[in-house]
Design goal:
Layout (H helix, E strand, L loop, with lengths): L2 E6 L6 H10 L5 E8 L9 H11 L6 E7 L2 H8 L3 E6 L2 H17 L4 E6 L9 H9 L13 H8 L5
Parallel strand pairs: 1-2, 1-4, 2-3, 4-5
The structure holds adenosine-5'-diphosphate.
Length: about 160
C-alpha cells in the first residue's frame, strides 16, 4: 500500500493543487491531502472553510482523503503511516524553497521519501497567493480554483449585489 501525504496551506485549494493530486493517483494507492496548521500565519479562509473546500473537491475520489494536522509534517506522515510526501513544483524558485525544507525533513525522518511532480504549463502560473489577491479585489476566479468550490467562495467572500 503506497500512501502519500500532500501537505500545504490550501488557502484556498487551486487547480494547481488538484492537478498534482489527481496525477499522484497513478503513483500512490492513497493520498492524504492535509492542511498544516501554522498558528503564526494569517489565512484568508478559516481552517473549517479550507477543509470544507477540500472535502467538496475530492468527494468522489476514493483514493484521496482530507485531513488537518498540527506540528511537524514528518510526525503527521509517520502517524498516518505515509512513506511518501507528495509535492508540486512550478518553477526553479519552488525547488529553491523546497530544498532546505526537504533536507531538514530528511534529517528528522530519513525513511520518508519526497516525490515531486512538475506542474503543467496550464497551472504553473497559479498560486494561492495570487488567487487570494484576485478574491480580495473582487476579480473572477474561474479557471484558477476548482469548479466545485466556485459558488462556495463567491458566497463567502463576494459582496452580494443588491
Ligand atoms: P505552502 O506554500 O503553505 O506549503 P501550498 O498550499 O501553497 O502550501 O502548496 C502545497 C503544495 O502544492 C506545494 O508542494 C506547492 O509547491 C504545491 N503547489 C502549489 N501551487 C501549485 C501549482 N499551481 N502547481 C503545482 N503545485 C502547486
Amino acid at each position: 500500500m503506497r500512501k502519500a501525504l500532500f501537505p500545504g496551506s490550501f488557502d484556498p485549494i487551486t487547480r494547481g493543487h488538484v492537478e498534482i493530486v489527481l496525477r499522484g493517483r497513478a503513483v500512490f494507492d492513497e493520498i492524504i491531502v492535509a492542511i498544516g496548521i501554522n498558528s503564526s500565519k494569517r489565512y484568508l479562509f478559516s481552517l473549517e472553510e479550507r477543509l470544507e473546500m477540500l472535502e467538496q473537491v475530492f468527494a468522489h475520489e476514493p483514493q484521496v482523503r482530507v485531513a488537518a494536522f498540527d506540528g511537524l509534517t514528518v510526525n503527521f506522515a509517520r502517524e498516518q503511516g505515509a512513506a511518501f510526501l507528495l509535492r508540486g513544483l512550478r518553477s526553479p524558485q519552488d525547488l529553491s524553497y523546497e530544498q532546505p525544507l526537504e533536507l531538514i525533513n530528511k534529517h528528522m525522518a530519513p525513511e520518508l521519501e519526497v516525490v515531486h511532480l512538475l506542474s503543467s504549463p496550464e497551472t504553473a502560473m497559479i498560486s494561492s497567493t495570487i488567487v487570494r489577491e484576485v478574491i480580495r479585489y473582487g476579480g473572477r476566479v474561474e479557471g484558477l480554483i476548482p469548479d466545485e468550490i466556485l459558488e462556495y467562495v463567491y458566497e463567502l467572500k463576494y459582496q452580494k449585489q443588491p
